[in-house]
Specification:
CATH topology of the largest domain: Rna Polymerase Sigma Factor, Chain: A
Pfam families: Sigma70_r2 (PF04542), Sigma70_r4_2 (PF08281)
Helix content: 55-70%
Protein name: RNA polymerase sigma-E factor
GO molecular function, one term: DNA binding
Shape: elongated
Family: Belongs to the sigma-70 factor family. ECF subfamily.
InterPro entries: RNA_pol_sigma-70-like, RNA_pol_sigma-70_dom, RNA_pol_sigma70_r2, RNA_pol_sigma70_r4_t2, RNA_pol_sigma_r2, RNA_pol_sigma_r3/r4-like, WH-like_DNA-bd_sf
Distance between the termini: 43 Å
Radius of gyration: 19 Å
Structural class: mainly alpha
Strand content: under 5%
CATH class of the largest domain: Mainly Alpha
Length: about 200
């Protein structure tokens, strides 16, 4: 934390070496955060725009949150702005609501599997092709998650943010973050189970 505070002081002072250090530390994280929302082609644009805005506003950053948490909020706003421009508006209509588990019917009342997931192997070129199709299917289904679940899954699974960081970025209680992550993971698991069973998205 002391190192981060020193880095922030150097950034505020306009130290170009500090800018390079910050970019090396967090650029990959920002790209990973943006990719599920805007695609690989535009994710780097989101990261670049995030850096421009962050460096322009670094004097206002008080350091109460971690630097990457602050950057994540900027990147999320940039990604959503690009999505809106592409007429892929994120619907906030159901923000924070709990639609229930999408895979509850796969379990007994005691919590055991009714239908266990099948084993999945990658031994052949065909299986590798299937894996590439799966990656595209994951991206497609990530876009279908409700906006709040999508953000939480993305920040936790791809960005590696912890629960308090995500709560600060999204302005939600930590308990809500855990519920949203659980629901988002269940929806993605339901998609994976379907893919494993039928081989298509």
């Amino acid at each position: 934390m002391d190192d981060e505070q020193a880095l922030i002081r150097r950034l505020r002072a306009g130290d170009s070496n500090a800018f390079e250090v910050a970019i090396k530390l967090h650029h990959g994280f920002l790209v990973a955060m943006a990719t599920p929302l805007v695609g690989q082609e535009l994710a780097d644009d989101v990261a670049q725009e995030t850096w421009l805005k962050a460096f322009a506003a670094i004097g206002k950053f008080e350091g109460r949150a971690q630097l990457r948490t602050w950057l994540a909020r900027i990147a999320l706003n940039e990604a959503y702005a690009i999505m809106r421009k592409g007429r892929r508006e994120v619907s906030l209509e159901a923000w924070g609501t709990d639609p229930g588990s999408p895979i509850s019917e796969r379990f007994t009342e005691q919590g055991a599997w009714n239908t266990p997931p099948t084993q999945w192997h990658h031994d052949t070129p065909e299986a590798l092709l299937t894996e590439a199709e799966l990656h595209e299917c994951i991206r497609k289904h990530m876009h279908k998650l409700p906006g709040d679940q999508q953000s939480v899954v993305m920040m936790r699974e791809l960005g590696g943010l912890d629960y308090p960081e995500i709560a600060k970025v999204l302005g939600l209680a930590e308990g809500n973050i855990r519920v949203l992550l659980h629901r988002g993971r269940q929806r993605m698991r339901a998609m994976l189970n379907h893919f494993e069973e039928v081989g298509t998205c």
